């Protein structure tokens, strides 16, 4: 085998490092995409018995967004293997204790019940903010696109931009709100 073909093969089977920004993203929809990268299903050489998955670094997991009233309604089960050790924790309580846990549980569930689930899960790195250790930053090679755009807050908009924003109705200055 020539050196060129060998380097192509090495490049094909090499593990890449991807970064995903979880700011204002639904963890259960995002986990489907992250699981695809962890299992290597985004690669053309993908096969169920082929372990060609990549590493995924998830940042800003403390700023995830759940839909509707899922913060109060979604619960997580945990059992500590002792008698009477079963507990149900609401999403907001779990997120308050550990901001990375909801994202980790969502990805673990999205990986499915296959034999490579634990190896793929070991390649997931979740951080609660955008501070990534230097040894991981050096390995990053691409970014996974977010599912929905992050809205801009009103305090981030400049006063000039607010003044130039088109108005639908121009109220008179003598108008009084009741």
Strand and helix layout:
Layout: H1 3-13, E1 17-21, H2 27-39, E2 55-59, H3 70-73, E3 75-79, E4 86-90, H4 91-97, H5 101-110, H6 117-121, E5 124-126, H7 134-137, E6 142-143, H8 159-163
Parallel strand pairs: 1-2, 1-6, 2-5
Antiparallel strand pairs: 3-4
Helix pairs in contact: 2-5
Family: Belongs to the universal ribosomal protein uL13 family.
Pfam family, one: Ribosomal_L13
Protein name: 39S ribosomal protein L13, mitochondrial
Outline, from the CA principal axes?
Answer: flat
Low-pLDDT stretches: none
- How many helical elements? 8
Average pLDDT across residues? 92
Question: Main β-sheet: number of strands, strand sense, barrel status?
Answer: 4 strands, parallel
Proportion in β-strands: 5-15%
Enumerate the strands of the largest sheet in spatial order, edge to edge or round the barrel: 5-2-1-6
- From the N-terminal CA to the C-terminal CA, the straight-line distance is 82 Å
Structural class: alpha/beta
What is the share of helical residues?
25-40%
Order of helices and strands: HEHEHEEHHHEHEH
Q: Count the beta strands.
A: 6
> Cα-atom Rg, whole angstroms?
22 Å
Pfam families: Ribosomal_L13
Keywords: Ribonucleoprotein, Ribosomal protein
Family: Belongs to the universal ribosomal protein uL13 family.
Protein name: 39S ribosomal protein L13, mitochondrial
Descriptive account of the structure:
Belongs to the universal ribosomal protein uL13 family. It holds the Pfam family Ribosomal_L13. This is 39S ribosomal protein L13, mitochondrial. This protein is an alpha/beta fold. The protein is 33% helix and 14% strand. It contains eight helices and six strands; from the N terminus they run αβαβαββαααβαβα. The strands form two sheets. A four-stranded parallel beta sheet has the order 5-2-1-6, covered by helices on one side. Strands 3-4 form a two-stranded antiparallel sheet. α2 links the parallel β1 and β2. α2 crosses α5. The longest helix has 13 residues. It is flat, with a radius of gyration of 22 Å. The termini are far apart. The mean pLDDT is 92.
